Amino acid sequence: MDTVAPVVRWKTDFNGKKVSVLRCELMDSGSGVKSFKAYVDGRFVLFTSYRGVWTCRLKETPLRPEGKRRRLTVKVTDRCGNETVDEKEFIY
């Protein structure tokens, strides 16, 4: 039985810096990750995975670099329905 939610480990530095690429690793020691969805200011953005690192290049999204504060929300669900919602703020 898996009752532990997945973990998001960020590789991007969100400490008040301008961000153009978002990177993270997803971990779930139980049933494994079923889904991963990401939104910036409520708009879906696509992440791709390469060697376990999920990446979103913001210039490849409909978002425009306006130098303003943005809110990133990611939702990760494992195969048993445990969910993690992680939010970060960054400038883009």
- Tertiary shape: elongated
The class by helix and strand makeup works out as mainly beta
CATH fold name, please?
Immunoglobulin-like
Query: Which CATH architecture?
Result: Sandwich
As residue ranges, the low-confidence spans are: none
SS element count, helices: 0
How many domain units? 1
Helix content: under 10%
Tally of strands: 8
Q: In angstroms, what is the radius of gyration?
A: 13 Å
Strand order of the largest sheet: 1-2-6-5
Q: How is the main sheet built?
A: 4 strands, antiparallel
Mean residue pLDDT: 95
CATH superfamily: Immunoglobulins
Instruction: Output the helix-strand order.
Output: EEEEEEEE
What percentage of amino acids are in beta strands? over 45%
End-to-end CA span: 41 Å
CATH class wording: Mainly Beta
Keywords summarizing the entry:
92 residues, mainly beta, Immunoglobulin-like, four-stranded antiparallel sheet, 8 strands, 0% helix
Task: Outline the secondary-structure elements.
Elements: E1 7-10, E2 21-27, E3 33-40, E4 43-45, E5 48-50, E6 53-57, E7 69-78, E8 83-91
Antiparallel strand pairs: 1-2, 2-6, 3-4, 3-7, 5-6, 7-8
Summarize the structure in short.
The protein has strands at residues 7-10, 21-27, 33-40, 43-45, 48-50, 53-57, 69-78, 83-91. The chain is mainly β and 92 residues long. A four-stranded antiparallel sheet has the order 1-2-6-5, with no helix packed on it. The protein has a four-stranded antiparallel sheet with strand order 4-3-7-8, with no helix packed on it.
General description of the model:
The chain has 92 residues and is mainly β. The chain has one domain (7-91): Sandwich (Immunoglobulin-like), CATH 2.60.40. Helix content is 0%, strand content 53%. The protein has strands spanning 7-10, 21-27, 33-40, 43-45, 48-50, 53-57, 69-78, 83-91. The strands form two sheets. It has a four-stranded antiparallel β-sheet with strand order 1-2-6-5, with no helix packed on it. It has a four-stranded antiparallel β-sheet with strand order 4-3-7-8, with no helix packed on it. The model has no long low-confidence stretch (mean pLDDT 95).
